[in-house]
Amino acid sequence: MSRILVCYYSRTGYTEQVAGKLARLLGADLMCIRERRPRTGIGGYLRSAWEALQGRDADILPPDTCLKDYELVVLGTPVWAGHAASPVRTLARQQRDQIRHAGIFCTLGGSGQVAALADLAQDLHQTPWSTLALTDGEIEVEGYEEKLTSFVAALRSRLNAEPAGRAGILGVDHGRTQFDPACLAPQAQPPAAERCRR
Ligand SMILES: Cc1cc2nc3c(=O)[nH]c(=O)nc-3n(C[C@H](O)[C@H](O)[C@H](O)COP(=O)(O)O)c2cc1C
């Protein structure tokens, strides 16, 4: 089993594509957040936007893997109405005590990444080791290798500085702090088929 889990929700496949690449680069396990009810059609779109705007929880299925077995959980979300997607927020809220350290990435049409990344950091009650935002345009042309590589390098260097298993065994404080959105600023400037079987 890997020390890293990449955990994502994807309605139309962009986040899934990035999650898959990340998992390969990190040598991580991969987990898709599943829901009881599909989000297809205009109804699914509107419900998604409404839940995101209201900060409502989604009806997700229990994760099929134990998150506390991992040293690092990388969460991936699409941006919905300027926020993180409700299924990912729900997972973060439900599992935050199981998540020792986190990285966060989001995919988006063009705006809302800072608030979406901050949503998840706040839901997790911890400052992520690193963050990444990628636009659909970048993903479509596969023009994000450099950003992906530096995200992976940042996560790896933090992980390498962390003795394996130490946090879980000694029960130490994992450095959970109040999240400062300013830490997202350097990565907050991206240029302007339903895959997750539920
Ligand atoms: C309900 C809904 C709201 C969205 N709101 C935004 C938004 O506020 N800003 C933005 O840049 N993109 C927005 N998007 C576009 C998605 O963030 C973008 O297409 C993302 O890559 C989709 O990821 P997915 O294919 O993994 O579901 C929205 C999409 C949906 C379905």
Description of the molecule:
Residues 3-139 form the Flavodoxin-like domain. InterPro entries: Flavodoxin/NO_synth, Flavoprotein-like_sf. GO terms for molecular function: FMN binding. By secondary structure, this protein is of the alpha/beta class. The protein has one domain (4-187): Rossmann fold (3-Layer(aba) Sandwich), CATH 3.40.50. It has seven helices and six strands. It has helices at residues 14-26, 41-54, 86-95, 113-124, 136-140, 145-160, 166-170; strands spanning 4-8, 29-32, 72-80, 83-84, 102-108, 131-135. Helix 3 (86-95) packs parallel to helix 4. It is globular. Residues 166-180 and 182-198 have low confidence and may be disordered. It binds flavin mononucleotide. Flavin mononucleotide is lined by residues 10-16, 45, 48-49, 78-82, 107-112, 136.
Offer a concise description of the structure.
The chain has helices at 14-26, 41-54, 86-95, 113-124, 136-140, 145-160, 166-170, and strands at residues 4-8, 29-32, 72-80, 83-84, 102-108, 131-135.
Query: Which ligands are bound?
Result: flavin mononucleotide
**CATH level-1 class:** Alpha Beta
Low-confidence stretches: 166-180, 182-198
- DSSP strand content: 15-25%
Distance between the termini: 24 Å
- Please provide the ordered H/E string of secondary-structure elements: EHEHEEHEHEHHH
Q: What's the average pLDDT?
A: 87
The main pleated sheet reads as: 6 strands, mixed
Q: What is the tally of helical segments?
A: 7
Looking at the overall shape, the CATH architecture is 3-Layer(aba) Sandwich
Morphology: globular
Keywords: Flavoprotein, FMN
Domain Flavodoxin-like: 3-139
Organism: Ideonella dechloratans
Protein name: Flavodoxin
